[in-house]
Input
Amino acid sequence: MSGIEDSGGQAGEGRVKNAILIAGPTASGKSALALDLAERQGAVIVNTDSMQGYSVLDVLTARPSAAEMARAPHFLYGHVHPSTAYSTGAWLRDVTKLIDEGVLSGRAVIFVGGTGLYFRALAEGISDMPDIPQAVRDRWRYELKEQGAERLHRLLMREDSAVAMQLKATDSQRIVRALEVLDASGRSILEWQAARCRPLIDRGSARFLVIEPDRAELVRRIEVRFDQMLDKGALDEVRQLTALDLDPALPALKAIGVRELQAAMAGQTGFPEAIERAKIATRQYAKRQATWFRNQLGVEWRRLRPGDDLAV
Output
């Protein structure tokens, strides 16, 4: 299989040919499938999961181990500091950079993860949002902390009513995002969203795979895996993250298990209760992922059960 098609256009417009996209809920076995295919095909693996891109949380985000990463080239794992609010657009720019630098050239490319919006951006393109200066980000985070989401929503209603009417008054993340974009660029986020960039993959030659595990088996895998995370040092990771004293609203601090284990370490709850809460949260998240994949992914996606063998 070839890796990249040079479109002859501007930098970043080359499209990945013969890509393999593997989606699935957490603990469904998608990383193991990706590694198996990568070894058989001499392919590279690109992380397509928002949480596995953060550093510090190696274990708690179920990132492939060092031994697994040594078996095939892996990219975009653990490369973002938790203090960064990493976005779909930032991820797509990082993938584009890999393409521009020729890192993916000449070999098959496997995109694997559980973030549906990453897959959609990869296959359909995404709006090219403006860069937001750190001072602007800091300003609106401060305003959110001081004023709260509902007051900022009223402000957005005055400044950009078309956006505000699409958002709930409690949706702090999207409200702040809309205000940031308006502040930094002078244009509504809707204007930016209206213009999509060219997809990075060649859909005609791509293989689309989504794992749909049996619910009872997935619950069992989640239970076992979280216990293994604790054995492998998840608590130490949460201590390291807590020591950074970051804004609790940052995406990395919303990783499942962080808040639950922080509460236990602070004496607010017992560890057995915290562990059970984390497992429940993981099951709920897996259910939301499975529902999204079932309803949002088109007919081109082949539905698999964990352990299904695929011909090379």
User: Anything to note?
Assistant: The longest strand covers residues 109-113. Residues 134-194 form a domain with the Histone, subunit A fold (CATH 1.10.20.140).
